[in-house]
From TrEMBL:
GO function term, MF aspect, one: metallopeptidase activity
CDD domains listed in its UniProt record: Peptidase_M54 (cd11375)
Entry's EC annotation: 3.4.-.-
Keywords: Hydrolase, Metal-binding, Metalloprotease, Protease, Zinc
Species for this entry: Thermococcus nautili
Protein name: Archaemetzincin
Pfam families, A to Z: Peptidase_M54
Function: Probable zinc metalloprotease whose natural substrate is unknown.
Length: 187
């Protein structure tokens, strides 16, 4: 199972849409995807950088990994409203750690409203699904892909996210299947 949690409050319809899309893809490998609930954001306050008004993304991953182990899940994905960054970067849409088999996606900068535009729930769901699939690809050992349509293509901006597709290219999908076999998820 891939466990999905929200970190802090987030629209249930958005989380369910992501779960459904990720489940539709990963079910081909016999992997279920389940929303397992909301995790409070308060314990992650240690990740908050007041100067930046952002949260250091990597701080979330060990806690998510511990929850993954507790649940017996093959991977875990956190979805949050909190604005994330990594050292040397202004922001990140998401982050993953393959050895912890945990990932997090922030919807903060995926929302049109962040840029002063009208809300678009359909576009927000598409963007969040792409980032979820991208980070789960990293969890399962995939690297960034040079194919700009592949979901594993690096997103330096929202334009990159909008331009790429929601699925892995054939080369990345082949590598994903190989990696899932190595993990013992596939026989």
């Amino acid at each position: 199972m891939i466990a999905v949690v929200s970190i802090g409050p987030i629209e249930r319809s958005l989380v369910e849409g992501v779960v459904d899309s990720v489940r539709n893809y990963y079910s081909r490998f016999g992997i279920s995807v389940e929303f397992v609930g909301e995790v409070p954001a308060e314990p992650f306050s240690v990740a908050f950088n007041a100067r930046r008004n952002q949260y250091l993304g990597r701080v979330f991953l060990p806690t998510l990994s511990a929850l993954r182990e507790e649940l017996g899940a093959v991977a875990i994905l956190g979805i949050t409203e909190l604005d994330l960054y990594e050292e040397g970067l202004n922001f990140v849409f998401g982050l993953a750690n393959p050895s912890l088999r945990s990932a997090i996606v922030s919807v903060q900068r995926l929302r049109n409203e962040f840029y002063g535009l009208e809300p678009d729930d359909t576009l927000l769901l598409e963007r969040t699904v792409k980032e979820a699939m991208h980070e789960l690809g990293h969890v399962f050992g995939l690297k960034h892909c040079p194919n700009p349509r592949c979901v594993m293509h690096f997103s330096n901006s929202l334009l990159d996210t909008d331009a790429k597709g929601p699925l892995y290219c054939p080369r990345c999908e082949e590598k994903l299947e190989e990696n899932l076999r190595k993990l013992g998820v596939l026989s």
